[in-house]
């Protein structure tokens, strides 16, 4: 039976891990966002349309990843989608980074994939949190190169591109 939080359609699914941590399953799937333990996935609901279980959301196509290489989330990857990806610690952020107390709740930074220019940029915001690119504080947008370092709070991330001049979803013909 769903919890009262799950019954409200406006809220994202909240689960509790065996250690008692609450986390948002739409962001971290079957891994607790606090302790990192892998949980047993829920049984899929039966559906008349089997394709519904494997269909991707049309608005969320992977353009790259932000991979944590130092900090509490070391080894975790965050999807970068087309357009602006706001980074913060709350569930309404496009890239939700949990556990690093120095990452702002909302809009610590923005990663933006521009499908016209076929490049990804790192943009600072008006939050109090500092953003570092290649160990330099940034105050203006920076175009990212593969495997550039990005520092937010006490965490360091590497940028891993998928879309670029060699491949972009906009160039692909639909089947």
**Number of DSSP-assigned strands:** 13
CATH topology of the largest domain: Tumour Suppressor Smad4
The CATH architecture of the largest domain would be: Sandwich
Percentage of residues in DSSP E strands: 25-35%
The separation of the N and C termini measures 39 Å
Rough shape?
Answer: globular
Biggest sheet architecture: 6 strands, antiparallel
Give the % helix: under 10%
SSE string: HEEHEEEEEEEEEEE
Q: What is the top-level CATH class of the largest domain?
A: Mainly Beta
Poorly predicted parts: 3-11, 50-54
Number of separate structural domains: 2
Number of helices: 2
Across the major sheet, the strand order is 4-3-13-12-9-10
The whole-number mean of residue pLDDT values reads: 82
Rg from C-alpha positions? 17 Å
Structural class: mainly beta
Structural write-up:
The protein is built from two helices and 13 strands. It has a six-stranded antiparallel beta sheet with strand order 4-3-13-12-9-10, with no helix packed on it. It has a five-stranded mixed beta sheet with strand order 6-5-7-8-11, with no helix packed on it. It folds into two domains: 4-45; 62-161, Tumour Suppressor Smad4 (Sandwich). The protein has 175 residues and is mainly beta. Residues 3-11 and 50-54 have low confidence and may be disordered. The chain has helices spanning 4-7, 25-28; strands at 14-16, 22-24, 62-70, 77-81, 83-88, 95-96, 109-114, 119-124, 131-133, 136-137, 142-143, 149-152, 155-161. It is globular, with a radius of gyration of 17 Å. 22% of the residues are buried.
